Amino acid sequence: MYFEIEPKGKKGDFFSYEYEYGQVKKALENNEKIIAVVGVRRVGKTSLLNIVYNETKSLKLWLDGRIVADPKKEIFAAIYETAKTGKPKIFGKIESLNVSAFGVGFGIELGGESRADIEERIRKARRICVFIDEAQRMDVKGLADVLSYCYDRLPQVSFIISGSEIGLVEEILGEADAEHPLYGRDVAKVRMERLDRNRAMEYLRKGFVQLGLKVTEDEIERAVAQLDGLIGWLTLYGYERGVKKSGDALGKTSQSAARIAASELNHFFRKVRNRKLYMAILRNASGVGWEELRTLAGRETGKRLNPNLFNFALERLVEYSFIEKKDEKYNLSDPLLLKALFLV
Fold first, then answer.
1. What is the pLDDT of residues 7-44, one digit of tens each?
2. Are residues 156 and 56 part of one domain?
3. Is residue 5 in a domain?
4. What is the per-residue burial (b if ≥16 Cβ within 10 Å, else e) of 302-318?
5. Are 187 and 37 in contact (CB under 8 A)?
6. Which SS3 state, helix, strand or coil, does residue 163 take?
7. Phi and psi torsions of 335, nearest 5°
8. 137, 168, 191: which is the final residue of a domain?
9. CA end-to-end span of the chain
10. Are 121 and 44 members of one domain?
11. Mean pLDDT of the chain
């Protein structure tokens, strides 16, 4: 069913992303060592990974990046545990839309074996596919070191990672840094984009048909106009409207989505110093260019912004996928971020 709010587990419940699904499957068939699925929040990355995980016949391991406290220790230990038992492992739930967790670890101990013995045990295992969701939530340098180490020393281990904070995922992969541990290694990158207006409307129509519910085109158009093509929010709306039968499904969806987005913003704001500047940039990122956005944000903060300071803040917001840059214009990646700003 399209309107289940948990990440999809079967391909038949997964709408539209046939090409991206095919790219991941092809990369696995070609024994690619690192496959990266990237895209802004709520475009369906976790569902895509979950479906491929369920279909994978090789020995496999699922890691939720939000609960990995020490990548160098815990990822290696989880791979060893999978190789040793010969059974699939899941560390961390495959979460629904409104759950967050940050770096609590999962406590696997390697025991007294030497590193050489552990590596030998892993090499003797059949192929191991390691799925890492929300990869950017862990220590990115530690993860890059693990990926590089396994790339060089454990040829039968493949990683399939996803991340919504585009810049940090690229930092993990090190594409533009000659000194990065992964620089020069082959990485298969699969990018997921939001649904366009027509596909978003088609998704809602088909989802309501599955439920045997008649919904007017006007209502579907209003939902798409407010929620954009982010399939996570569209699914939440379909669930409210078609499953829970809420009287004001769109209003309730917008409120729930804004609270989730506000939680993510608060997590981000704990990492920055000039919160007022970041909020001003977010409030004014409405399809304007760099200079106009600097002027508008400066007007809101009450001072002329230093270009370097402004650019640093703007680039961080792009890296964390709160803002998107297209054709030299800046927009919020999620239309509900504007509402979320009133809740932080």
1. 899 999 999 899 999 999 999 999 999 999 988 888 99
2. yes
3. no
4. eeebeeeebeebbebbb
5. no
6. strand
7. -60, -20
8. 191
9. 33
10. yes
11. 89
Quote the percentage of the chain above a pLDDT of 70.
93
Q: Are residues 178 and 287 in the same domain?
A: no
Same domain, 172 and 63: yes
Instruction: Indicate which CATH number applies to the domain containing 319.
Output: 1.10.10.10
Q: Please tell me whether residue 287 adopts helix, strand or coil conformation.
A: strand
- CA angle, 268 then 270 then 273, to 5°: 105
Q: Which domain holds residue 213?
A: 197-265
Model's pTM, two decimal places?
0.85
Count of domains for the chain: 3
Phi and psi angles of residue 152, each rounded to the nearest 5 degrees, phi first: -85, -35
Find the helix or strand (DSSP H, E) in which 238 lies.
helix 231-238
pLDDT at position 230 over 90: yes
2-5: long-range contacts, CB 8 A cutoff, minimum separation 24: 2/203, 2/206, 2/207, 2/210, 2/235, 2/238, 3/207, 3/210, 3/211, 3/235, 3/238, 3/239, 3/242, 3/243, 4/235, 4/239, 5/96, 5/97, 5/235, 5/236, 5/239
Q: 24 with 165, same domain?
A: yes
Picking from 225, 240, 265, the residue at the C-terminal end of a domain is 265
Lowest mean pLDDT: which of 11-15, 70-74, 89-93, 116-120?
A: 89-93
Q: How far apart are CA 150 and CA 156, in angstroms?
A: 9
Instruction: Tell me whether residue 4 is in a domain.
Output: no
